[in-house]
From TrEMBL:
It comes from the Bacteria. Keywords: Oxidoreductase. This is Pyridoxine 4-dehydrogenase. InterPro entries: Aldo-Keto_reductase, NAD(P)_OxRdtase_dom_sf, NADP_OxRdtase_dom. Residues 15-307 form the NADP-dependent oxidoreductase domain. PANTHER family: AFLATOXIN B1 ALDEHYDE REDUCTASE, ALDO-KETO REDUCTASE YAKC [NADP(+)]. Its EC number is 1.1.1.65. It holds the Pfam family Aldo_ket_red.
Length: 330
């Protein structure tokens, strides 16, 4: 497994990270034992970057990872945690809280649930519109000085916010959606992160399974985010799946799966970009790791660009109500 450093002074992480959100809902029920087995398989394969959020399953995801890490050396895993999202008992969303006092409160609970004494990368899940980013990053910096956090990360923020945050402390990485059909960061955000020496940890590299090559219409059930995701709705889904079939032709010629080509494309955009794969099962993890053996030539990349042109996807990556509150979309 190749190793990349996040940012100029961040941790050294595997060239692929494991996004653990789906193990605690969002995409329907998951199997606890299989989830833990998948985390173990990832670590055994050299994947050291585990990404979570304290609001995934209202703490369930952190406790799951904590259980999976029992008996292993703490340094075997680089744990990335998002915080700040507010939930209610009915699974509703109630905005974000990134006040310094809240940052410290969230971290205290995270350390307890994970069963660790420090977090490798700590990041606000979204920009709190009521709190200057400088104050939030300053609070994380205080936690670094106290030994509870190692590095500062950001998530789904725009170019101006990135610049402001970087004046307070070194930023290891920006976590943001990036895939063949979600390429918005290329216009303004990616140039700024590269100027400042900040890495990208890319989530949604398979667009929530849409471009995995496995998705079929009507597959989502109760409690699945895709039931409200615009790209999975009637009027959009058929055209999006047609893009997948074009990508499948290229994958077949490469002797690879659609998912492997899609992940390899993200990785090919630069060593400062680390794909996060949301595998919930060992077979899907094995497939994702197989992307490391897929070498995309210049001709391959051109063919992929023709098959899935920038902006070709139908529908936004989030419902409009959520996009309005995302700093990265402004």
């Amino acid at each position: 497994m190749q190793i990349h450093r996040l940012g100029k002074t961040g941790p050294e992480v595997s060239a692929i990270g494991l996004g653990c959100m789906g193990m605690s809902g969002m995409y329907g029920p998951s199997d606890r034992a299989e989830s833990i087995a998948t985390i173990h398989a990832a670590l055994d394969a050299g994947v050291n970057l585990l990404d979570t959020g304290d609001f995934y399953g209202m703490g369930h995801n952190e406790m799951l990872i904590g259980e999976a890490l029992k008996g292993r050396k703490r340094e075997d895993a680089i744990i990335s945690v998002k915080f700040g999202a507010l939930r209610d008992p009915s699974n509703g969303w109630n905005g974000y809280d990134a006040r310094p006092i809240a940052v410290k409160n969230f971290l205290a609970y995270t350390l307890q649930r994970l069963g660790v004494d420090y977090i490798d990368i700590y990041r606000p899940a979204r920009l709190d519109p009521n709190v200057p980013i400088e104050e939030t990053v300053g609070a994380i910096s205080d936690l670094i000085k106290a030994g509870y956090v190692r590095h500062v990360g950001l998530s789904e923020v725009g170019a101006d916010t990135i610049r402001r945050a970087a004046t307070v402390a070194p930023i290891a990485d920006l976590q943001i959606e990036y895939s063949l059909i979600s390429r918005g960061i290329e216009d303004e955000i990616l140039p700024v992160t590269r100027e400042l020496g900040i890495s990208i940890t890319a989530y949604g590299v398979l667009s929530r399974g849409l471009i995995s090559g496995h998705w079929q219409k009507g597959q989502q059930g109760a409690g699945d985010f895709r039931a409200v995701s615009p790209r999975f709705q009637e009027g959009n889904i058929d055209e999006n799946l047609a893009l997948v079939e074009e990508l499948r032709k290229i994958a077949t010629l490469k002797g690879a799966s659609v998912a492997q080509v899609a992940i390899a494309w993200v990785a090919a955009q630069g060593k400062d970009i680390v794909p996060l794969v949301g595998a919930r099962r060992r077979d899907r993890l094995t497939e994702a790791l197989g992307s490391r053996a897929v070498e995309l030539t210049a001709d391959d990349l051109s063919a992929i660009e023709r098959a899935v042109p920038k902006g070709a996807a139908k529908g936004a990556r989030y419902p409009e109500a959520q996009l309005k509150h995302m700093d990265s979309e402004k």
